[in-house]
Write a structure and sequence with these properties.
The chain has 3 domains: 140 residues, Adenylosuccinate Synthetase, Chain A, domain 1 (3-Layer(aba) Sandwich); 93 residues, Adenylosuccinate Synthetase, subunit A, domain 2; 160 residues, Adenylosuccinate Synthetase, Chain A, domain 3 (Alpha-Beta Complex), CATH 3.90.170.10. A 10-stranded mixed β-sheet has the order 9-7-5-2-10-1-11-15-19-20, with helices on both faces. The radius of gyration is 22 Å and the shape is globular. Helix 3 packs across helix 4 and helix 5 runs antiparallel to helix 6. The protein is built from 12 helices and 20 strands. The chain is an alpha/beta fold and 427 residues long. Bound molecules: inosinic acid.
Length: 427
């Protein structure tokens, strides 16, 4: 038995879904441990593209258990839509399990997400408006309603009625907005409950049963290190814990049960939403990366901001996640340039640092210190062995290993399932 956490080492969208899909073939169970349908994991199988938001990316393998863990916030409408999409493509979803401890996203959460963003004006975070922040707020405030509350629907109705009164008061009296029709919510959630019922379980008990049976377990992170509520560029973060430590609270396992922590790093950097980004390219090179890499959000369709690889962020991600391995994605997209750059430090008032700052405001004053490397041909998507990569691409990977101090176990050279170079196995 062995366990591996897959976590994003940047601002999300690193291409985690394809490596979860890849590693899931050797795992008995895949667990999502945080976030909600703000995530968008793209998996391409036989040239068919699937965008998953809530269901773990191991669902494409029959007979595997896929747990939506206690740390996830579940929007039942989004979940049902996703299950229908999968079933209409002939995917068997019977291996899905939803932890009864996971919290439900309710229509109020989406509404409050929208209203808080509006209220922030120019200082908005650029959230996905999926209600993620407000759902975690209710959880922390202990007024949230959980997936397990759907099992005895009378319990759900009782809790929701109390909850709705408090929230509609805020909508009506503070925001001057109409309240949300509680009867309609009850009717909708009654239907959702009937569809979700076969999947609801004690996710923690199930996970530990599988661990004791010797199954390999894969923990699938959503978003990325710099979007972590505690560790990221607060307040331009999400409201959950994408870092590897998030597995402990979001899936219910102790840290000693984690064997490998695989950090997924895009060969360049992207970010959606607002907030500082030292290596951002606001020029033709940034546009070229965006277009070539189709860097548009899987969840919201928003254009992603693009820039060079930032090794300061990478070192930070190594520290806070305890990364044991790296997977570098999209090496084909970064191909075709004469030269490419890696940021090795930030210059601030004449001094250079490679420590990611605690106050993101400083990032606006930091200037990137770049190292320039020779580029490589982008026609590498057929390559299966590291030694067959162009020499300059090998050097780029080597430099990432030197700067991070972590071995690169996998390299993505194309979007398809088979377009990856595997140098080390996780299981
Ligand atoms: P929220 O998670 O919708 O509250 O959004 C908070 C911040 O996280 C915003 O900047 C979003 O763009 C960003 N974010 C949320 N989910 C993802 C993701 O899956 N990939 C990249 N950025 C994300």
């Amino acid at each position: 038995m062995s366990t591996t956490v897959i976590t994003g080492a940047q601002w999300g969208d690193e291409g985690k879904g394809r490596f979860v899909d890849f590693l899931a073939r050797q795992a008995g169970c895949v667990v999502r441990y945080q976030g909600g349908d703000n995530a968008g994991h793209t998996v391409i199988i036989d040239s068919e593209e699937f965008k998953l938001h809530l269901v773990p990316s191991g669902i494409f393998y029959p007979h595997k258990i896929n747990i939506i863990g206690n740390g996830v916030v579940v929007n039942p409408a989004a979940l049902l839509k996703e299950l229908r999409m999968l079933e209409s493509s002939g995917i068997d979803v019977s291996g899905l399990r939803i932890c009864a401890r996971a919290h439900l996203i309710l229509p109020w959460h989406m509404k409050f997400d929208e209203l808080s963003e509006l209220g922030r004006g120019n200082a908005d975070i650029g959230t996905t408006k999926k209600g993620i922040g407000p759902a975690y707020m209710d959880k922390a405030e202990r007024s949230g309603i959980r997936v397990g509350d759907l099992i005895d629907f009378d319990v759900f109705v009782r809790k929701l009625t109390l909850y709705a009164k408090a929230k509609n008061d805020i909508l009506e009296k503070i925001y001057g907005e109409p309240g949300i029709d509680v009867n309609k919510v009850i009717e909708d959630y009654k239907y959702y409950a009937s569809v979700m019922m076969p999947y609801i379980t004690d996710g923690i008990a199930l996970l530990h049963e599988l661990i004791s049976k010797g199954e390999n377990i894969l923990f699938e992170g959503a978003q990325g290190t710099l979007l972590d509520l505690n560790i990221g560029t607060y307040p331009y973060v999400t409201s959950s814990h994408p870092i590897a430590g998030g597995v402990c609270v979001g899936a219910g396992v102790g840290p000693k049960l984690i064997d490998n922590v695989l950090g997924i790093v895009k060969a360049y950097t992207t970010r959606v939403g607002k907030g500082p980004f030292v290596t951002e390219l606001r020029d033709g090179t940034g546009d070229a990366i965006r277009e070539k890499g189709h860097e548009y959000g899987a969840t919201t369709g928003r254009a992603r901001r693009c820039g060079w690889l930032d090794a300061v962020i990478l070192k930070y991600a190594v520290r806070v996640n305890g990364l044991t391995h790296l997977a570098v994605t999209r090496m084909d997209i970064l191909g075709g340039f004469d030269t490419v750059k890696i940021c090795t430090g930030y210059r601030y008032r004449g001094e250079v640092t490679d420590v990611f700052p605690a106050r993101w405001e400083l990032l606006n004053e930091y200037e990137p210190v770049y190292e320039e490397l020779k580029g490589w041909d982008d026609n590498i998507s057929h390559i299966k062995r590291f030694e067959d990569l162009p020499e300059n691409a090998q050097k780029y990977i080597g430099r990432i290993e030197e700067l991070s101090g972590v071995p690169v176990a996998m390299i993505g050279v194309g979007a398809r399932r088979d377009q990856a170079i595997v140098r080390m196995e996780m299981f």
